[in-house]
Structure formats: C-alpha cells, structure tokens
Write a structure and sequence with these properties.
Blueprint (H helix, E strand, L loop, with lengths): L7 H13 L5 H6 L2 H5 L2 H16 L1 H11 L9 H15 L5 H14 L6 H20 L3 H4 L3 H11 L1 H10 L6 E5 L3 H8 L2 E2 L5 E3 L1 H7 L13 E3 L6 H4 L8 E5 L5 H8 L3 E6 L2 H13 L5 E4 L11 E7 L14 H4 L2 H6 L1 H14 E11 L8 H10 L3 E3 L20 E3 L13 E8 L1
Parallel strand pairs: 5-6, 5-8, 6-7, 8-9
Antiparallel strand pairs: 1-3, 1-4, 2-3, 9-12, 10-12, 11-12
Length: about 425
C-alpha cells in the first residue's frame, strides 16, 4: 500500500499522530497531507470523523483503555495506542460494525509493524465490545474530556455549574452557521435553515450531509453567503452603520468579518501577517463579489496613511472558545500559551487606537474563554489609556439575548448559550471609543 493509496483508517492514524505527538493543528494536518485529499468524499468524511471524535472524547477513551490494560503501552508504542483509541471510537461512538472495528484495528496494527501488540489490541477491543457501553454510561464525560487547567480556569471565571455546561457543549459536533449578504429570511427558506436571534442562519449537520456539503448548497457559487459561526458574526455588527466609512480589519484572515464589513458598505482594509491566508481571504471575497484592500503586514508595526473611522481587531488567542469546532485545541494549548499571547494582544490593541480617528470606534475581540484574553486585557488597557472609553453593548444589538452581555457591557458568549438552537462559539468583544 503506497502512501498515496492509503485506507481511511491508515490516514486517520497518521492524522491523529500528527496532532497528539507532533502537536500539529488538525486543520494544518489535513491541508498538508496528500493521502487525505486522495480519498473519495465518503472516505474523507469517515477518516475525519474518526479523528475528530477521538480528539473530542480522548479523556473518556483513555479512561476506558486504562480500565482494560494492566499498564499503559510504552511511549515507543504510540502508534499501537492510537490504533486502540481509533478502534474504541469505532466500537462505541460511531456506527462501525463491531467485527469491522476489531478486525480492521488488528490488521492496521500488523500493517504498521506492531505485530507484537495485535493480540492485546484484539483482546482489549473485544472486551470493549462487550462492556464498553456500560463503562461509557458510568463516566463523567464533561470532566474527563476537559484538561484540568481549563476546567479550573472556567470554574473560577464562570462558576462550576456553567463550567460543566461549557464542557458538555464541547461533546457534540456543532451545527453549521452562515452569514448572508442580504435577505436572510429568503435564504433561510431556500436552505431550510433557522434564523438565530443574533441574525445568523443555522443548518443542522444531517441536513447539510443530505444536501451534499457546503459547496453544493444553493447560493454558494453565487456568493450569497459564507460560513461563519453565530458568535464570530457579532463583533462586526457592533460597529453599527458603517456604509461609506473607512474600516480596518486587523488579523483579518480567513475573512468572514472582512466580508461582513464589505457587505455592509464599508471601505475595508484587511491586514494580516500571512500572505497565504490573505490569498484565501481574497479568493473568498471574489466568490462573494465583494472587495477590500488587502495588506500583508505585521499589525503591531503597520500603520495606515490616514486614520480610519473604525478598527475591528480579532486578536490572536488560544481559541478555547472554538473547541466545539476544533477538538484538537485542548490537546495543543497550555496555560503558558495564554501568558505568551498577552504581549501581542496588548500591543495590537494599543496599535488599533493609533489607527482610528478621534471619535472613532475600536472593537476588540477574541474567540477565547480565558479571562486573561478578554475582559482582563481590556480592563488593563482602559486603566492605562487616557484616550479610550468603553461603549457598552445593548442586549438589543445581540437579538435581545441579555445573557450574552457581561456586567461591564461587553459581549461574552459561551458555548452553552443559545443551547435551544445547538449552542455557539465562545467569544469576547469590547467596543471602545477613542476620545
């Protein structure tokens, strides 16, 4: 079996190893691995689902394996450990027939040169086939799948009960949200989508699969809409009526917020340090029949020739608010990452105020649940700045959902918000005025 002709289980094993052992983000692993692209659509979906589910439920899976093993496999047998993990996922969390899950895992073990573990893998998976579901029912899924440092951080910030709701929201794959350039009610009817209180459209995953995936949906080729989580769509709307105004979008790629600003009639300058990501942004705008000036630059150093009416800063962060969509994040991020991102966040926020006119507005946002990357960052900035003040957000600006506004008047969405619709990403945003 050549590298470019691998089975979906081989591909899933390589992708899982890239995340857990080489600490590579799953999206990057998918983009850079040609055997994944060579699979047909059905096998790609199968491989990706195996990996995503394993990452989403890794705490539970390892707990189950720990109950079946006298001791963990040695570190040098990491491939065999991942074969066990993928086999357990197929047995207990997907619709793979038990015999196929067990037999394919044993065969995968042999094909990867770990024959010494084939009998062990066979015995463990057969036991999980008999007892695994009862074991699953005995687990605290929310706690097991949340690293200690995140659980403690969220408990301190939001309380134990809300922390548990956040963790429970991470257990399921999220629905698909889209933003439309115009006529949301019309497109909701055409797509069979729900209109959320915040204005985004939402499609269920089963409906999306039935329709054939995102590119097959009506309006995609015509550029009528783009994929964007409901929470991520809120910050751009906090700038109000921006038709004809100059707006700088900092850290702009992949471009969902840039598209919102351009669709609202703003004169947009999109700045991102990655030329490759800016190229993707430009392609997205082209499909949407929208335009913006794009600049590849470090936003900490770059300054516009003329100050803008408004700046939207989606600052780099640990992205812990997007774990529903990116289940690799708990296995890649650490408390040290939160600390390390503090300096660039502070520098970017200070720079954003240098880019805006007096009387202009800056919206600072992050897709993080960590207080250090949201309210704490803004509070420190306002304490030191003499030319800035907070412009509180009103519940009417977020569909009347007062639970999305914190006591300071900032946006603070959590994955457990809009739970009756399937949740949303965790986002923080503060609206500030230069005075």
């Amino acid at each position: 079996m050549t590298e470019n002709n691998l089975s979906p289980r081989h591909v899933a094993l390589d992708l899982l190893g890239a995340v857990l052992y080489r600490r590579q983000p799953l999206d990057d692993a998918l983009d850079g691995y040609s055997p994944f692209a060579d699979l047909d659509q059905r096998d790609r979906a199968f491989a990706r689902n195996m990996v995503s589910t394993t990452l989403r439920r890794l705490g539970q899976i390892d707990d189950l394996l720990g109950r079946c093993l006298d001791r963990p496999l040695p570190r040098k047998a990491g491939i065999a450990t991942n074969i066990l993990r993928l086999g357990a996922v197929q047995l207990l969390l997907t619709r793979t027939p038990p015999h196929a899950a067990v037999d394919s895992s044993v065969e995968l073990c042999r094909e990867r040169g770990f024959e010494k573990y084939d009998k062990l893998i066979n015995a463990v998976l057969r036991r999980l086939g008999r007892e695994g579901r009862e074991m699953l029912n005995d687990q605290d899924a929310a706690r097991l799948n949340t690293p200690d440092w995140l659980w403690q951080s969220w408990s301190r910030a939001y309380g134990e009960d809300t922390c548990r709701l956040i963790a429970e929201a991470h257990l399921n794959e999220p629905p698909l949200d889209i933003s439309v350039a115009a006529d949301p009610e019309l497109w909701a009817e055409r797509l069979g989508a729900d209109v959320l209180p915040t204005g985004s459209l939402r499609l269920s995953r089963p409906l999306l699969s039935k329709l054939g995936g995102v590119p097959a949906l009506p309006g995609f080729d015509d550029g009528a809409w783009w994929v964007q989580d409901a929470a991520a769509a809120i910050p751009a709307r906090l700038l109000g009526d921006i038709a004809g105004k100059s707006v700088i979008d900092l850290c702009a790629a992949p471009g969902g917020k840039t598209a919102q600003l351009a669709a609202a009639g703003a004169i947009v300058t999109a700045v991102d340090r990655s030329p490759k990501r800016l190229e993707r942004l430009t392609q997205n705008l082209r499909r949407l029949n929208l335009s913006a000036e794009t600049i590849a630059a470090d936003a900490e150093q770059w300054r516009p020739s003329e100050p803008a009416d408004a700046v939207l800063l989606d600052a780099p962060c640990t992205a812990t608010g997007t774990i529903r969509r990116h289940p690799d994040i708990p296995h890649l991020k650490t408390p040290e990452d939160v600390i390390g991102l503090g300096r660039p966040q502070a520098a970017l926020l200070a720079g954003a105020f240098e880019m805006v006119k007096p009387g202009g507005v800056v919206v600072f946002c992050t897709c993080s649940l960590q207080p250090e990357e949201g309210p704490d960052r803004v509070q420190t900035f306002l304490y030191d700045a003499v030319n800035a003040r907070r412009l509180p957000i009103d519940a009417a600006e977020v569909g009347g959902r007062a639970e999305l506004i914190n006591p300071n008047g900032d946006l603070r969405s959590l994955p457990c918000h809009l739970s009756e619709f399937g949740g949303m990403d965790g986002f923080y945003a503060a609206r500030l005025e230069r005075i």
